[in-house]
Amino acid sequence: MNEIQIDHGPLRVVEESPAYWRAVFDSPPLNLVGRAVIEDLYRLLARMDASEELRVVVFESANPDFFLAHYDMSGDTADVVRRAGRSGLGQPHDVLLRLAEHPVVSIAKIRGRARGIGSEFVLACDIRFASRENTLLGQPEAGSGVIPGAGGTERLPLLVGRGRALEIILGSDDFDGETAERYGYVNRALPDAELDDFVDSFARRIASFDRRPLAAAKRLVNQVSLPSVDRLLDGRRAFSEALTWPETHKRQAALFKRGMQQEGDLEDHFGAHLADLLGDDVED
Predict the structure, then answer these.
(1) N or C: which end of the chain has fewer CB within 10 A?
(2) Please, are residues 95 and 88 in contact by the beta-carbon 8 Å criterion?
(3) Under a CB-based contact definition with an 8 Å cutoff, are residues 112 and 63 in contact?
């Protein structure tokens, strides 16, 4: 087993074998998705491209409470959204598209909170396994004044159906592991004590197979199950427009006032706070 930290960044790679890697998000305190995470994901994809032996990568978090909290809204990562990748999409969209289309199998082992782009990241993975007791998934953007901007509106309906996708996106609430499994948001929700062994066993099973049939099968499934680049571009444009809305600025200011991107009750119970955000916090 070989462990590598990518360019001293927030993503560590543990090479369990040449065919099976674990990629561990480790960006205290909340695992926010900002420039450093996106850049490390690009570096990881480059290493995946270069490996002829790799079959499967498991993504997990070093923080048991936050898989990936959400996008870093502090403002110093805005250029990452504007900068286009080779697909023509902004880099957050582009890196998730490349992950979904990559011949290597990607598995999200979800323990903790994954909201916003954190949720969109796990949606872009091929397979999702979650802790039944310690998972909260959500797309809280509408309640925060924007819309999902990295594929949530495009990928969720294909997994859970139109009605449940609208419930998740428009309701902007948190969904526990058991509900997420029932909806199809994740493949399975397992008891937390069983999650690690189950995912490790499943990944090792895939890693024991030949790469060519795995890649061919994934490519064929992708053809009938992934949104088009044009649809993702529509989502990116709509998200960028939403960032200019005055009501969005009010809601974002209210969220920071309540403690967004800091350890505390808002990040722990994000969905609950959105229900009463139209109070004193957002008044002129």
Answers:
(1) C
(2) no
(3) yes
